[in-house]
Amino acid sequence: MLHDHGVVRSQSLHGDCYDNAQAESLWSRLKTEELEARDWPVFADLADAQASVAEYFDYYNHERLRSSIDYQTPYYTHQQLLQLNALNCPA
Fold this sequence. Notes:
Strand content: under 5%
Oligomer: single chain
InterPro entries: Integrase_cat-core, RNaseH-like_sf, Transposase_IS3/IS150/IS904
Number of helices: 3
Number of domains: 1
Number of strands: 0
Domain Integrase catalytic: 14-74
Mean pLDDT: 85
Low-confidence stretches: none
Protein name: Integrase catalytic domain-containing protein
Organism: Hymenobacter roseosalivarius DSM 11622
Order of helices and strands: HHH
């Protein structure tokens, strides 16, 4: 049925349960911190759902500190890695 509708399944690599850990962590946080805090019904409509998820992703990437990256934001850490890679890249 998926093939008939042009859908490609997304699965982790065989035998690698940590392949998708970061994405699963993000979805877990979204559900816990954003969705469970809302009253029922969760969203008024699709536009409300899209705006809520977009706002959470912005918060998650630019404001929410992560202990796994020395209490920095993912955006800040990514920018630091880009700068480091640029310095180590031969011209």
